[in-house]
Amino acid sequence: MQWTKVLGLGLGAAALLGLGIILGHFAIPKKSNSPAPSISAPQDLDLEILETVMGQLDAHRIRENLRELSREPHLASSPRDEDLVQLLLQRWKDPESGLDSAEAFTYEVLLSFPSQEQPNVVDIVGPTGDIIHSCHRTEENVTGEQGGADVIQPHAAYAPSGTPQGLLVYANHGTEEDFKELQTQGIKLEGTIALTRYGGVGRGDKAVNAAKHGVAGVLVYTDPADINDGLSSPSETFPNSWYLPPSGVERGSYYKYFGDPLTPYLPATPSSFRLDLANVSGFPPIPTQPIGFQDARDLLCNLNGTLAPATWQGALGCHYRLGPGFRPDGNFSADSQVNVSVYNLLELRNSSNVLGIIHGAVEPDRYVLYGNHRDSWVHGAVDPSSGTAVLLELSRVLGTLLKKGTWRPRRSIVFASWGAEEFGLIGSTEFTEEFFNKLQERTVAYINVDIAVFANATLRVQGTPPVQSVVFSATKEIRSPGPGDLSIYDNWIRYFNRSSPVYGLVPSLGSLGAGSDYAPFIHFLGISSMDIAYTYDQSKTSARIYPTYHTAFDTFDYVDKFLDPGFSSHQAVARTAGSIILRLSDSFFLPLKVSDYSETLRSFLQAAQQDLGALLEQHSISLGPLVTAVEKFEAEAAALGQRISTLQKGSPDPLQVRMLNDQLMLLERSFLNPRAFPEERYYSHVLWAARTGSVATFPGLSNACSRAMDTASGSEAWAEVQRQLSIVVTALEGAAATLRPVADL
Amino acid sequence: MQWTKVLGLGLGAAALLGLGIILGHFAIPKKSNSPAPSISAPQDLDLEILETVMGQLDAHRIRENLRELSREPHLASSPRDEDLVQLLLQRWKDPESGLDSAEAFTYEVLLSFPSQEQPNVVDIVGPTGDIIHSCHRTEENVTGEQGGADVIQPHAAYAPSGTPQGLLVYANHGTEEDFKELQTQGIKLEGTIALTRYGGVGRGDKAVNAAKHGVAGVLVYTDPADINDGLSSPSETFPNSWYLPPSGVERGSYYKYFGDPLTPYLPATPSSFRLDLANVSGFPPIPTQPIGFQDARDLLCNLNGTLAPATWQGALGCHYRLGPGFRPDGNFSADSQVNVSVYNLLELRNSSNVLGIIHGAVEPDRYVLYGNHRDSWVHGAVDPSSGTAVLLELSRVLGTLLKKGTWRPRRSIVFASWGAEEFGLIGSTEFTEEFFNKLQERTVAYINVDIAVFANATLRVQGTPPVQSVVFSATKEIRSPGPGDLSIYDNWIRYFNRSSPVYGLVPSLGSLGAGSDYAPFIHFLGISSMDIAYTYDQSKTSARIYPTYHTAFDTFDYVDKFLDPGFSSHQAVARTAGSIILRLSDSFFLPLKVSDYSETLRSFLQAAQQDLGALLEQHSISLGPLVTAVEKFEAEAAALGQRISTLQKGSPDPLQVRMLNDQLMLLERSFLNPRAFPEERYYSHVLWAARTGSVATFPGLSNACSRAMDTASGSEAWAEVQRQLSIVVTALEGAAATLRPVADL
Q1: Which residue from A340, B27, B32, B494 puts its CA 20 to 30 A from A641's CA?
Q2: Distances in whole angstroms, Cα of residue B329 to Cα of each of B304, B308, B448
Q3: Where in the numbering of this chain does the PA domain appear (chains A, B) (predicted)?
Q4: Mutate which of B92, B106, B273 to test chain A, going by most A C-beta atoms within 10 A?
């Protein structure tokens, strides 16, 4: 009769004890002799945040950004360029949607402009010395936007001033082979003016090759066959289509290297050492001027001489002849000459980068760097404002989450708006020169979105192997614009694909040259980089690039009407870049898959064996050590992958993960060798340096072989082949060593 | 009447609740979505372990190590050198006292030896062509250890073979100035043999300078004034004292650079690219041979010609004359000539480094690297076996704690025994070439103990500023050997001190040249390094180095009887190195004080301002940007120090500390610029590169100024001064940027 009471008490006691246990366990934070509860613990990629960001990236706002950015021409260092610096600072400092901080970094750099007082001119001069024809000095004002005083006259930036005059010849792309062909055709090039078309080689190379053969001046035009799918009449071109109008002229830098020409390897601060102009290398050696195809037609369709080879013909509606000089039955008397008067001026100008940052919550010393240049040639709606419009929308969405306190990334995210890219990646290069070590030690990856949208068909990504996996993960989760319900990934694979020995059919990433601001990051600093854009269906057009590239016709309406009505492709690029940035900044384990380098090395190795093996053997050079090195890399990369997945199954310590992530982040650095190609300014990456040799293998090896080819065994050239082989073997062995368990000798 | 019961129940309930709370809190491990409780938490420097290690480092065992190591000559790549590789592997793999793992890394390197068949000879040849006197080919066998077949004949390593013969001249140290002096004295140097004494310049420089003046062959000897405090008789020298016997000859490498001469910047693997001998630079241009001072006396005391300047006189007991040729009243007829026949051979030999590692428990990817070379010229009891004896005792004590499970360091500790150092730091250099990135990314510091004990008076440390503080902390806690109760620090400060603007009177650290294996680590990789030894009281002896250096008299008995009877100085060095290693490997916060670089920069800056300021101004070069850069560095370094002490007061997250430690560890890297001094092989550190200029400031600036000095403004030389100024400003600004809060732009 008492037992119920006892039981009651017992139960109560149990309940109280239990309550206590619960309170004690959950309500009181554990104290320990350990440093404060690791702030790093919970933070990993948050898929809800990712979804939110994807959802908030707004096509309409990108369109409005673009309208503002491209409202006026904003040539590097122009007043409007400075206005945009302020616009970026204001956006990135906005209390509701800004970043943690933003700042402008200004450099004093050497730019090249046509003279205002004395415009560049291209004339045909009759035998009596009077001008019988003049090319257009400006593009036709078809939309009211081509006539402004701030529309820079077309010129070949960094081409020297001068007024050469001579008989005209047609030199196709102006390659070394093209000029050799003219010689074999018995054409005297000494003192001539060479008309060349864009394509084949870099801009500056055309003048360099021409000068080697005594050519006195160079003209460069864009052939309708190369840019307009053959169309050339005003009715068929902008504003009636996306094609280039007859008066359109592609501007561009003709400088061989990148970075400020006066301060190689040094930031162009006001006090920095600067080369004497006499000691600057890489400028075109002879006066050069770009023209439109309507002017090119007048010149080319009146040329005399033998018919140009079939591959040299274009779409100007006449048979292209080689010259020299004009044909008697044409518009100009036979002995007329062409005069190219170039009055370019070199000026030291201030150009700014704008940097903005979101501080990482856990690993603020790890930077996910995302950038694009700001400067354009004219309005630059596509190049570069389409990228900047995306950049601003991404910073707005992330900034808003940040300011609301909803989210802060694990690692720091750095936004960059580079200056003076059009003159040779100057802003980004000076930045890497100024902060070399800080960036090299801490940057996870560099994401570049320059021209965001060339066209609406598909994604196009260039990058180094470690970024492939994160690009794939991101694009599989995003719907592609346009009809159907494909992911960006599934749409992409229809246009660019390759069969991977590891993955089967996958979208193919292109490799990074030096076409935009990623160049100093990958080649000079060895930072894993990528360049992202939406582009066209190459089966539907043969245009080498969007037709109004670097002309005064690259305007907002051009984008709005022809390139991306509705801006859904811009939105797709924003989502792709955004997802990649979040994955890189928030994932506990860095989504950089270093083992994807194995495929590249394998393919380089196979090319070397197939295309160079026999030749090398003749000169008793063995590829054996290279084979061993590639195999070592493959094995170590695979083993590291294994260790990572094992660790991911458990609940690893943040420091353990940090150590692994450092191995992933720093792998790319181990391919750098600043002493490998001393003559190739900035190019230190032994896998991606510029390849002049024809064999698609390790560039140092490929280039050295093509130089040694015709020399005897034991020559210096063959010694250089062996040196290059040892350089790449050392890099691969060194890279493999960094992938091994960190406590292994 | 009921209330007591209620109260009782209440109390019981409270007790139960409380018990529950306690159980819940302590008895049940907290579960969370966070990674496992950080293993990194508790691990910091353990003073008890430190004390244990200090106590267990045993002088007697060091003595026994030395006896074994120096029992036989162990020239690089000799059979005995290979035996010692096995000895090290066996010690480091010992189950009771070994490390986690150990391994030998072998390279195929170019060494230089005298011919066995055809010994190098130095003869005096009479007018009739017959040999009237011959110098000794070997050292006198005074202890029974100098006669062995494995005692290498004295030679100038890498000096070319040849048999020049000519009149003898005396050229003092063989500096550029010395040969100029001979010229001004009207002495024809063409075709002569120059007798020089060690000191003044590097070995190889004597031959380089001589060859510039047409000298045909060079002899090098050690003057008793420079090494023996003037004493030279057998009764006054070893085995009767520590002084060099008359027949002793200093051997050495005469190669200008370091590393394997055939594989600059590449590891000397069997398959590596190797230079043709014709393309190797840095070897002495003319036959060269070292001799003992008894032979030098025969030559020098019979010279003809004018009396040498007072500063050229030595302690051979005669008036030194300049020559050319012998005096009529001497031992040799006046027109006798000296013939120097050198038959050195270059051979590709296998040389091994031995590496051993203790895996770090928390940060295994951070390496504290401690090493010494293994190879000697003969028995090398002092050089290098005194260091190796210490190395083995340290690895034994730490290995024993490890195997017992008593201790495991926070970071990894790597022990290194380098090969072929005597020929030019070859083993260590090849190692840095092979593992460049891995080492540069992960090495906390490099500690070198080559010659552990020169003498018993005091500690002597060379190192870069960030290591000063850890050296001070360690040495303050260790009793110095010998009478009295001073700490090593308090004894040290009596011999080497300076007045620091920050700390007042402190022991002064020397700066690191290229005298031992630290060179590639500091100059090529930018790793904070130090070299530790016990040395003599410079007020008691003027010896440029311990007298039997690089001779067959550097034996165990020499050390046991004269250098360090009782081995207490060896023990002191072992304790110092051991304490430094533990502090670097176990401290939660890295004990590298980067702000100590500010003093160096300040002093370099002041020297530049005082000694170059006016000159630079004349050429309108401003030091303003350098001043700003130094001030920036000072401010950022101080601020970082503040942040660290604040953090130390709290209980910081291990990741936060890792990030700070990375800033400390990597600072030294930011002073590297591989493009700063392209002609100076391996030297990339803009603060410690070899300084040829007289002004004690930034080496690039100092050297460029001394070259530009006599050229006109606007010369290339002055442009180079400006370039060097920008290089150092960029490095300092870049370094300051790495010290800022990591999330700052």
Answers
A1: B32
A2: 9, 18, 52
A3: 166-252
A4: B273
